[in-house]
């Protein structure tokens, strides 16, 4: 009996892998046909975004893009930033577990200024400042807030906060009964931005790689169809899929 179940499990895994391979081949072929038919240019991408904005019922206010262990993501970030600004999405976060983007923030800004200089005046970078209010709204509504995240902003942030609170209790700086959900929300949401509505994960592994576990409790996560660069059409398909989701917030 054990042998029969083992053979069935192997067949199921093989079928899933075969289906994934066929689907990926289909997506690659579809992408090539789209590129041949429409071409790859900025005007086409803007037209696709504008059609999507008029078609979908809702758009996310905050998108987090999870690159996982993938590096060399500068070009992907530039394109996604351009699409989100065109759609009027006010918050974008990019996460990679290796910290590649955090280390290469200046390179990202350079490539963005070189490829899309028209976007620079519509972007805010870095830590929260006087332009951002505690309720997650931005004083400059015409600008998009871009955050670059690494593993230090994920589980490590919760571990660090736990140690800090434990030390505060020991020293008497805070009472144990004062530690509640509201306090944790205040400490972990110190960036002054709303929690992500939509998460996009690069790669075939269905893992969030530890991105902001506290802030992504009700985030809708989608796995990208391939590990290659995302196309404008694929991005809008994911937005349409998100628009149709009914967020029940655990109800």
TrEMBL record:
Identify the metabolic or biological route this protein is part of. Answer: Protein modification; protein glycosylation
Instruction: Name the cofactor(s) required for activity, per the record.
Output: Mg(2+)
Q: Which UniProt keywords apply?
A: Endoplasmic reticulum, Magnesium, Membrane, Transferase, Transmembrane, Transmembrane helix
- Could you confirm whether the keyword Transferase appears in this record? yes
EC number of this enzyme: 2.5.1.87
- The record's principal subcellular location, in a coarse class, is endoplasmic reticulum
Where, by residue number, does the polypeptide cross the bilayer? none
Question: Is Transmembrane among the key words of this record?
Answer: yes
Enzyme class, UniProt record, top EC level: transferase
Q: Where in the cell is it found?
A: Endoplasmic reticulum membrane
User: Which reactions is this enzyme annotated as catalysing?
Assistant: n isopentenyl diphosphate + (2E,6E)-farnesyl diphosphate = a di-trans,poly-cis-polyprenyl diphosphate + n diphosphate
Q: Which domain of life is it from?
A: Eukaryota
PANTHER family linked:
DEHYDRODOLICHYL DIPHOSPHATE SYNTHASE COMPLEX SUBUNIT NUS1
Q: Which family does it belong to?
A: Belongs to the UPP synthase family.
Q: What is this protein called?
A: ditrans,polycis-polyprenyl diphosphate synthase [(2E,6E)-farnesyldiphosphate specific]
Source organism per UniProt: Xylocopa violacea
Organism lineage string: Eukaryota, Metazoa, Ecdysozoa, Arthropoda, Hexapoda
């Amino acid at each position: 009996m054990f042998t029969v179940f083992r053979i069935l499990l192997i067949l199921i895994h093989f079928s899933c892998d075969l289906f994934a391979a066929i689907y990926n081949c289909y997506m690659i072929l579809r992408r090539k046909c789209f590129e041949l038919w429409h071409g790859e240019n900025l005007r086409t991408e803007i037209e696709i975004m504008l059609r999507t904005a008029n078609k979908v019922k809702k758009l996310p206010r905050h998108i987090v893009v999870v690159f996982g262990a993938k590096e060399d993501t500068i070009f992907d970030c530039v394109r996604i930033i351009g699409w989100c600004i065109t759609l009027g999405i006010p918050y974008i976060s990019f996460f990679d577990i290796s910290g590649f983007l955090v280390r290469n923030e200046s390179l990202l800004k350079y490539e963005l200024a070189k490829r899309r200089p028209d976007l620079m005046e519509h972007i805010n970078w870095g830590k929260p400042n006087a332009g951002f209010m505690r309720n997650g709204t931005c004083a400059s509504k015409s600008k998009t807030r871009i955050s670059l995240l690494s593993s230090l902003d994920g589980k490590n942030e919760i571990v660090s906060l736990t140690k800090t609170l434990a030390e505060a209790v020991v020293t008497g700086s805070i009472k144990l009964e004062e530690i509640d959900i509201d306090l944790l929300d205040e400490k972990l949401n110190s960036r002054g931005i709303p929690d992500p509505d939509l998460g996009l994960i690069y790669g075939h592994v269905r893992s969030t790689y530890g991105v902001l576990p506290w802030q992504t409790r009700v985030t809708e996560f989608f796995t990208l169809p391939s590990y290659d660069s995302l196309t404008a059409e694929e991005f809008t398909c994911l937005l349409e899929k998100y628009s149709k989701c009914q967020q029940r917030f655990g109800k």
